Amino acid sequence: QVQLVESGGGLVQPGGSLGLSCAASGFPFSSYVMTWVRQAPGKGLEWVSHISSSGVTTTYADSVKGRFTTSRDNAKNTLYLQMNMLKPEDTAVYYCANQGGVRGQGTQVTVSS
Fold this sequence. Notes:
This protein is an all-beta fold and about 110 residues long. Helix content is about 0%, strand content about 50%.
């Protein structure tokens, strides 16, 4: 079945960096647009970024543009999110999702001193 498993979350100080991974299985990963979304405590889902199936095209929310980078390795069926210059307002559960709307279980990112 379709499965998305995020990893790499944790606690980081403001200004720090963290890298997330999303391992995909059960669907043709290399043919799918992939998305990162996040949910802060007490708030709704917020779109973070898209990446095209080839990985050539990426788009970002204004709130993370210039700080976050999405990439993918289609040979490894894995999606990545590199987060730099983290801010307390980046604290959230981060999810990867495929274009079919399937989402992983999420990984917690906490930015705090």
